[in-house]
Amino acid sequence: MKRASIKDIARIAGVSVATVSYVLNKKEGQRISEETKKKIFEIAETINYVPNKIAKSLQNNKSKLLGLIVADISNDFYSSIARHLEDKALKLGYTLIIGSSDENPEKFAKLTELFSQQQVDGMIVAPVAGSEEVLQRLVDKSYPLVTIDRYLKGINLPGVILNNREIAENTTNFILEKDFDQIIYIGYDTKLPHLLDRQYGFEASVKESGKDIVTHNILVGLENISEEIQAKLKIVLGENPKNTALYFSSNKLAVAGLSYLQKTNIKVPEDVSVLAFDETEAYQLFPAEITYVKQPLEEMAHEAVQLLDMQISQYSKTAKKITLSGELIIKNSTK
Hints:
Structural class: alpha/beta
CATH architecture of the largest domain: 3-Layer(aba) Sandwich
Largest sheet: 6 strands, parallel
Helix content: 40-55%
């Protein structure tokens, strides 16, 4: 069956192809009567006219594709935010292409190159350590680009981030009010500023509290997370930990730590209390409901897509940064 075209609508309506194009594309400045506009829309609906997106993208020099680069799409945080981004992008007529960098700067660079070859209109990225040069090249080319969840120092880009340090300070104060004998912070051995903000927020709150309390920092690499956490928790906790709080700076670290506690029969919250950044469905596998910091994923996605669309449409070229806050969801894993 032949696909209905603008020419068919023009022939039936008795108007020019240009008039139909103006009406369907809602272009301003043309003296076309409301009666004619109504007639064209009715005919288009009657003959099931569907715009040729490929032809339109060639005409506008736009692919209506967006690239998304996250650290790991299998992580609940990134898979959830990707879904919100996809929904928000679709409402603006974009299709999302997704890739995982696996925290590897070389893979991150290859993904940006691949997306450029696919002629995506712009990218939303969670930058990895060591990707500064790649991002700066895109900035120098005025390529539409927005960072999400993370930022890198020295790169002036539009982005949507969380006020990680302030949240870390507030959640640490929440723990300090409970008078634990020791607090253990479990984070990453990293140069990524947003994760360091969480660590520095924890350390600042402990110092400012003036409390005589034992604290430990367990910092692990991005590989062999479970093995490192379990080995280090074994040393720091010992066999019979009491009145101790564990502060995990991500859901991935929390799941690895909780697995160790369950395996060694350390009870939550009877023996140790647990608080974690980010939620994950994996928390449901453990007996205690986990206290966690909930990030505003839908709002982050909305702001990121809006920032990118403004660049693509050339409404804005400013490196606007939007900082959002999280919410502490208190469950029974903290006494």
